[in-house]
Design brief:
The radius of gyration is 39 Å and the shape is rod-shaped. The chain contains three helices and 21 strands. Helices cover 24% and strands 43% of the residues. 21% of the residues are buried.
Length: 338
C-alpha cells in the first residue's frame, strides 16, 4: 500500500512538472507590433464649445414678470426689434402721478410769473416753484428711462439662437432670456492647461472631435490666445476659427487636439510599447530588451530617433517584467502604427 501511494505521488509530481514545462517552456504569451514609418505629431489636448464669432446674450436688468415674449427661435431679427415685455404697470402708474404733479407745477409757475408781473409776488417764490417743476421733470425723465428696461430689444442684427423664458415667469436681474448671433463664421472657445499653453501658437492646426460626428474629419486653426489666464482653473482661453462649411452647430461641446509639432517619414512605435525608455524586440522566441532614443511623444504613437530599425517587431503592450532575453510566444499582432 505504501509503495502504491509513493508511486501515485510520483505520478502527480511528474504531471505537475510536465504542465509547468508546457506553460513556461513555450514562453510568455505576448502581442507584437512592427516598427513603421509615418508622421509623428505632438498634440495639446483641450475641451471647448462651438460659438458664433459675433453673438450676444440678452438679459433682464430688472426683476419683473414676463407679460409678452416673441416666438422667434431660429428667426432673424434686426437691432431694436422687441423680443419681450415685462410687467410695467406699477411704473406707469408712478409716471402718471409724476405727470399730474408736473401739470400742477407748470400752472403754479405760470401763476407766480403773473403775480410777479403785477408786483404781488417775490422772485424767491417764483424760483421755488420753478425748482419744484425741474425736480418733477427730472423724475419723469428717470422714470421714462426705467420704462425702457421693461422692453427687451435685440442689441444686434442676427438670428435668435435660443430663447429661455415663458409668459408668466419671473425674470430675474441678469437672467439671460435670449442669445442672438450670426451663424457664420463659427469658432471653438477652448480652455488649455497653463503648462501646455507655451506650446500653442496662432495658426496651428486643430483636430476636433464630437460624438455628434463620430467619423471625425473636423478641423480648425488657432485664431487667438487670451493673454491672461485664469489663476483659479489654471487655464488659458483660446479661440479656434472654423471653416464656413463646418457641420458643427453653436453650443456643441468638442474635444480639441492642437498639433503643436509634426514630422513625417519617421520611425514610429505604439505608445504602450515603451517602458522606461526601452522596448522588448522579438527575435524568434526571445524578447530582448533594448534602450531607445525617442522624439515626439503622441497619445497613440511615439517617434524613435535611435535604437530600432523599420520592420522590427516589438512587444506591445510592454511587458511588466523588464528582464532581458525572455522566452515568449507571439499570440497576436497589434498591426501597423499610424
Amino acid at each position: 500500500m505504501a509503495i502504491r501511494r509513493i508511486a501515485f505521488l510520483l505520478v502527480c509530481i511528474a504531471v505537475a512538472a510536465g504542465a509547468a514545462w508546457w506553460a513556461l517552456g513555450r514562453g510568455t504569451p505576448v502581442t507584437v507590433a512592427a516598427v513603421v514609418r509615418g508622421t509623428a505629431a505632438e498634440i495639446v489636448y483641450a475641451t471647448g464649445v462651438v460659438e458664433p464669432v459675433r453673438w450676444a446674450k440678452v438679459a433682464s436688468v430688472v426683476r419683473e414678470r414676463i407679460i409678452d415674449i416673441c416666438d422667434c427661435e431660429g428667426r432673424a431679427v434686426a437691432v431694436g426689434d422687441v423680443l419681450a415685455r415685462l410687467d410695467d404697470r406699477e411704473l406707469r402708474a408712478q409716471l402718471q402721478e409724476h405727470k399730474a404733479r408736473e401739470d400742477f407745477a407748470k400752472r403754479e409757475v405760470a401763476r407766480q410769473t403773473e403775480l410777479i408781473g403785477r408786483g404781488a409776488s417775490t422772485t424767491q417764490a417764483h424760483e421755488r416753484v420753478s425748482s419744484e417743476l425741474r425736480q418733477i421733470q427730472a423724475l419723469i425723465s428717470v422714470q421714462m428711462e426705467r420704462l425702457d428696461d421693461y422692453t427687451i430689444t435685440a442689441p444686434m442684427d442676427g438670428v435668435v439662437l435660443r430663447r429661455d423664458g415663458e409668459i408668466g415667469e419671473l425674470a430675474d436681474i441678469g437672467q439671460v432670456l435670449f442669445r442672438i448671433g450670426v451663424l457664420k463664421p463659427l469658432q471653438v472657445v477652448a480652455e488649455v492647461n497653463e503648462e501646455d499653453i507655451p506650446r500653442v501658437g496662432v495658426g496651428q492646426a486643430a483636430l476636433l472631435r464630437t460624438d455628434a460626428f463620430p467619423d471625425g474629419g473636423l478641423r480648425g486653426a488657432v485664431r487667438e490666445i487670451t493673454p491672461m489666464g485664469d489663476p483659479v482653473t489654471k487655464t488659458y482661453r483660446i479661440r479656434i476659427a472654423l471653416p464656413d462649411e463646418t457641420p458643427l452647430k453653436p453650443g456643441m461641446s468638442v474635444e480639441v487636439n492642437i498639433v503643436t509639432r509634426e514630422k513625417s517619414g519617421v520611425l514610429l512605435i505604439p505608445a504602450d510599447a515603451l517602458r522606461a525608455n526601452a522596448v522588448h524586440v522579438v527575435d524568434a522566441d526571445r524578447a530582448r530588451r533594448r534602450a531607445v532614443k525617442i522624439g515626439i511623444r503622441g497619445s497613440r504613437a511615439i517617434e524613435v530617433i535611435a535604437g530600432l530599425s523599420e520592420g522590427e517587431r516589438i512587444v506591445a503592450p510592454a511587458m511588466a517584467d523588464n528582464a532581458d532575453d525572455m522566452r515568449v510566444r507571439v499570440i497576436g499582432n497589434q498591426g501597423a502604427t499610424p
